[in-house]
Design a protein that fits this description.
Blueprint: E1 5-7, H1 9-16, E2 21-24, H2 27-32, H3 37-51, E3 55-62, E4 65-68, H4 72-80, E5 85-87, H5 92-98, E6 102-104, H6 106-115, E7 120-122, H7 140-145, E8 150-153, H8 162-171, E9 175-179, E10 198-200, H9 203-216, E11 222-225, H10 236-253, H11 260-271, H12 275-295
Parallel strand pairs: 1-4, 2-3, 2-7, 5-6, 7-8, 8-11, 9-10, 9-11
Antiparallel strand pairs: 3-4, 3-6
Helix pairs in contact: 3-4, 3-12, 9-12, 10-11
Bound molecules: pseudouridine-5'-monophosphate and manganese (II) ion.
């Protein structure tokens, strides 16, 4: 396993010295955001983590190696190449065996980050239970249930069945903390009407809960849900309309599997004249900032 991990020297140093480190995913770069905002955002997220006093570690698979911390060329490759695969945990063995390049999802990123010794990860929205009759449950969920790491996000992506996703987290012992909020945020929107398990108002409060969880030996993720900044929130009416239209279009075209999430996100950005894209970028940056502050609380063992 250690042979397959390729940890960037500055990230390895930070981990060894128990300094704050924040892992970042790469599917959002390769498949979640359009060009050129994807590369700009990836660079910006790394800068935000550094400004917050932590070391960024963007995760991806390059030539079959599990890279933790990417250089500029690698980031550019992920953002601009046309043949970047979306790698969830089930895809890691094939990518490794065949020496492929791939962008990692929440599931595979936390799988790798945890094994590299990182305790905090930031993203936009986690995957979850999709809407519709065919059961389609993101591999993000089971990975959250078995990976002891702090995941900072803005809830699950709005395209999902949010009540079903919330139930899944509850059943599988994933503790959900609202960061300065009393209900679970809904990605582009600050409200979902769904409960959190506890509210935390500071990075120190989050760190305390995580330390208790680690002391207890509970092996699931501590999910920290941060609402999209107020000024970037998408208006409820616009959101409902573009969401309905995106779902109808996906259904009409028979889009399924790994393509579904990227398709729905891009449809919504197009149909909202970029409002959902602006919200997505704003919440990603804000979550990276909060994650850096949490990492600085000394959550490293
Ligand atoms: N959040 C975003 N954009 C994204 C994703 C999340 O703002 O593109 C990605 C994440 O990498 C997440 C994945 O893990 O979508 C979930 O895809 P699926 O439902 O196919 O598991
Ligand atoms: Mn799926």
């Amino acid at each position: 396993m250690q042979q397959l991990l390729n940890i960037a020297p500055e990230v390895a140093d930070a981990i060894a010295q128990k300094l704050p480190v924040v892992a970042l995913e790469s599917t959002v770069i390769a498949h979640g955001l359009p060009r050129p905002q994807n590369l700009q955002t990836a660079q910006r997220l790394q800068a935000v983590v550094r400004e917050g006093g932590a070391m960024p570690a963007t995760v991806a698979i390059v030539d079959g190696k599990l890279n933790v911390g990417l250089n500029d060329d690698q980031l550019r490759l992920l953002a601009e190449a046309d043949d970047i695969r979306k790698i969830s945990t089930r895809d890691i063995p094939v990518a490794v065996a065949r020496g492929l390049n791939g962008a990692t999802t929440v599931a595979s990123t936390i799988w790798i980050a945890h094994r590299a010794g990182i305790r905090v990860f930031a993203t936009g929205g986690i995957g979850g239970v999709h809407r519709g009759s065919l059961p389609d449950v993101s591999a993000d969920l089971p990975e959250l249930a078995r990976t002891p790491i702090i995941v900072v996000c803005s809830g699950a992506k709005i395209v999902l069945d949010l009540p079903a996703t919330r139930e899944w987290l509850e059943t599988n012992a994933v503790t959900v903390v609202g960061y300065q909020c009393d209900e679970l945020p809904a990605f582009y929107s600050r409200a979902s009407g769904l409960p959190v398990d506890a509210r935390a108002d500071s990075p120190a409060e989050v760190a305390e809960i995580f330390k208790a969880q680690r002391t207890l030996g509970i092996e699931s993720t501590l999910l920290v849900a941060v609402p999209v900044p107020q000024e970037a929130e998408v208006e409820a009416e616009v959101l409902q309309t573009v969401l309905d239209n995106a779902l109808t279009e996906a259904n009409r075209l028979g889009i399924a599997g790994a393509h579904l999430t990227p398709f729905l996100l891009s449809q919504m950005a197009e149909r909202s004249s970029g409002a959902t894209l602006r919200a997505n970028i704003a919440l990603l940056e804000n979550n990276a900032r909060v994650a850096a502050a949490i990492a600085r609380e000394g959550v490293m063992p």
